[in-house]
Amino acid sequence: MSRPITIDEVKSFPFTGVRGCHLSLDGKRVAYDYRGNITIFDLNNWCAETSFDGAFPRWSPADPNVLAYVKSDRSGIFIRHVDGTERHLGESLGTVQTEEWAFGGHLNTLDWSFDGKFLAMVVDREPAEKNMSSNEDTDGIEVVNVSPDASTDALVVLDVSTGAVTFESSPAAHETYCNVAWHPSGKWLTVVSNGSDSPEPVDPSDFSFETGHLDPDWHLYDIDVRDGQKKSRVGPRANEMGLIKWSPNGTKLALGYSPYVGEVRPLCAAMERDSNQIEILSEEYFCDQVLYWSPDSRKLYVNGLKGLSERVVCVDTVSKSTEEVVDWTGRTSLSGVSQDGQTLLIHWTGLNNLSDVYVVSIDSGESKAVTHFTDQLNVYELPTSEVVEWPSYDGLVLQGVVVSPHGQPMSPDRPTIVDLHGGPIGAGIAISQPIWNWLVSEGFQVFAPDFRGSQQYQFAETPAEDMNYRDLMSGIEWLVQNGKCDPAKMGLTGFSYGAYLGSYVVGQTSCFRAAVLSGADYGYMGLFQLGLHVARNAVREDDKWKATLEIPAWYFMQGIYYADRVETPVLLFQGEHDIPPIEAKMYATYLSDAGTEVEYVMYKGEGHIPISANKDRLERLLRWFRKYLVESD
Fold first, then answer.
1. Are 275 and 391 contained in the same domain?
2. Is 370 within 8 Å of 32 (Cβ atoms)?
3. For 254-263, how does the pLDDT look when each residue is reduced to its tens digit (9 = 90+)?
4. Which of 41, 333, 453, 483 has a CA-to-CA distance to 259 between 20 and 30 Å?
5. Which of these, 493, 491, 513, lies nearest to 597 by C-alpha position?
6. In sequence order, what DSSP letters do the residues of 462-511 get, joined into one string?
7. Contact status, residue 426 vs residue 263, Cβ threshold 8 Å
């Protein structure tokens, strides 16, 4: 018999499912990893062949019987044959970087050469010791000079047959290699890097007065693996670049690229081999993570995010037309295209299912499940979850998730918790969250709105907090008008960016009876940096200092700026090793000084997500919402 989720199960709820999977060259086998174990699945006989410790499987592009993978502790690369024999490559390399270790199963920094003879990857070396010198100034104060650490990244090429390192390259001192792609010729690697290629450390004065943060530099290089020569293809630019992949014929490089300077809405793009011009192929979808070429080098299969769903989209690089191949609600992650171009491998997570692996026919659209991890949810009485749409203040149609008791619609009889997601860019996805299920079991219903600042609908200028706020309030108005919630019984919660936005929201409206915010920057340090910038540019006239700079828009989006207006009782959570605790502490102080009821909880030893304190955090959250949304009635 099914039952609701308990508070103790929120942390251990099996909501991850498959983290990564890959399709063999001949389309006959799938390798997928689940909780640190890789399973090889035979698609012809439709059965699992073997299972072993590891993660991030990658089949050879030249031999369908050979697989590369990373041990679950990320200690080097292993090569495994389907007959069970395996070898450990590069035992002294260091830790293999896995950019998406916790979020999507994409190993961005590992790439097979097209002939299957070499593997390129980025590894973390042990950091060099800091060069420190000490002297005493004239006032008797000890001054310690610390030279900047060199980058600990290294781009390494391994010979698969011997395990020997055939090439190694390190980025500049303040630069990080993010993505790697072999050219089919095997002569060079193309690399995306982030950070400054200058030997000098980042200067805090590079803080952007207009945007309120440091704008990073992105570079695209070709690195010759024969002589180590490094040729800049693109950069430095403040435009984000995502995953890269060369076409099989070597004439085009596909990449996720944001054409918006200083902003992030990556689009599907490509560039010719002998050009440094980037051509946008589709503006309809947010695209930065997954790219697979068709065998004829004409079409790209990509993950395209639009609204709350990530789809598999086919982009024709000649006609620039797009077609949705798989448009299921939730996160549909592409993990391989067969050599004949007829079969896709995906893993899909939705509102009522875990991440399971499917094979999909491109021609017919028919799909078949390889794994059935969603069956683990059968013991639970899951709530009713669905995606809803509403027109925002300017007509832009946005999406959100509503969660209510099993088999029942949203109702004004139940108090509503509005949950603001983090990120915010690319972070609004329609997948199940254990905390929503638990809140419903405790008598609440949930509204999780998306907003234009996620960049999942169209490009939104930043700072977007006021637009996000109006998007949120438009969604609440839609719920009320459709009889789905009582505006007098609403609570607000948010994590990371969601908490940052939440602090702005409660400074604009008193419609929420209570708020719980966790792990955010509330604007204290930003306003301090702003003050320094204004002071540095002030001029002295008639024996008085006068500011010469106008206050930028982002200043007025800081939650702490509106602390004296907040009427909503606020509960704040902060990890000791997260964003500097002074942010939450000063926000709490400002709220308290303004007469707002506030409680500030700082968890010792915890980071951005207070994992070991999860139960205490949930218990406090539940008491807070019950006190103001239930008991106060």
1. no
2. yes
3. 999 988 876 6
4. 333
5. 513
6. S--HHHHHHHHHHHHHHHHHTTS--TTSEEEEEETHHHHHHHHHTTT---
7. no
Please check whether residue 227 lies inside any domain of the structure: yes
Cα–Cα distances (Å) from 522 to 422, 472, 557, 587, in that order, read 14, 19, 10, 7
152-164 CB burial, b ≥16 within 10 A, e <16: bbbbbbbebeebe
Q: Which amino acid is residue 3, in one-letter code?
A: R
Average pLDDT over residues 557-567: 91
Continuous H helices in 515-581: 524-536
Q: What are the tens digits of pLDDT across the range 46-65?
A: 999 999 999 889 999 999 99
Mapped onto helix, strand or coil, the DSSP state of residue 222 is strand
Sign of CA dihedral 379, 384, 386, 391: negative
Does one domain contain both 191 and 340?
A: yes
Cα–Cα distance, 68 to 80 (Å, whole number): 6
Could you tell me the residue range of the domain that residue 588 belongs to?
A: 382-631
Q: Helices marked H in 294-389 — which ranges?
A: none
| Tokens encoding 549 | 């700079």
- DSSP per-residue string spanning 591-611: HHHTT--EEEEEETT--SS-S
* Domain assignment of residue 291, yes or no: yes
For residue 166, what are the CA distances in angstroms to 232, 419, 609?
A: 22, 50, 40
Q: What residues form DSSP beta bridges with 598?
A: 570
Residue 116 is classified by DSSP as S
Mean predicted confidence (pLDDT) in 236-255: 89
Nearest Cα neighbor of 7 from 629, 601, 608, 616 is 616
Same domain (yes/no): 370, 393: no
pLDDT at 161 > cutoff 60: yes
Q: Is residue 553 included in any domain, yes or no?
A: yes
Q: What is the pLDDT of residues 365-395, one digit of tens each?
A: 899 999 999 998 899 999 999 999 999 999 9
Instruction: Single out the residue of 373, 363, 316, 327 nearest to residue 342, CA to CA.
Output: 363
Structure tokens at 254: 């596909």
**Which position has the token pair 């990564």?**
20
Q: Are residues 284 and 211 in the same domain?
A: yes
587 occurs within a structural domain: yes
- The rounded distance, in Å, linking the Cα atoms of 628 and 633 is 8
Q: Take residue 413 and report the two structure tokens written for it.
A: 């009889």
Q: Name, in order, each residue with C-beta under 8 angstroms of 126's C-beta and a sequence gap of 6 or more.
A: 94, 152
Tell whether the model's pLDDT for residue 133 goes beyond 60.
Answer: no
Q: Which two tokens stand for residue 580?
A: 């500097």
Tens digit of each residue's pLDDT (9 = 90 or more) over 531-545: 666 666 666 677 666
Q: Which two tokens stand for residue 200?
A: 């000098």
Residue 144 or residue 87, greater confidence? 87
Same domain? For 364 and 420 the reply is no
Domain limit, last residue, from 358, 376, 394: 376
Same domain (yes/no): 354, 405: no
Instruction: Tell me if 118 sits within 8 A of 186, measured CB to CB.
Output: yes
Whether a cis peptide bond, with omega within 30° of 0, leads into 463 is yes
Q: Are residues 332 and 433 in the same domain?
A: no
- Are residues 351 and 421 part of one domain? no
**Residue 345: which CATH number?**
2.120.10.30
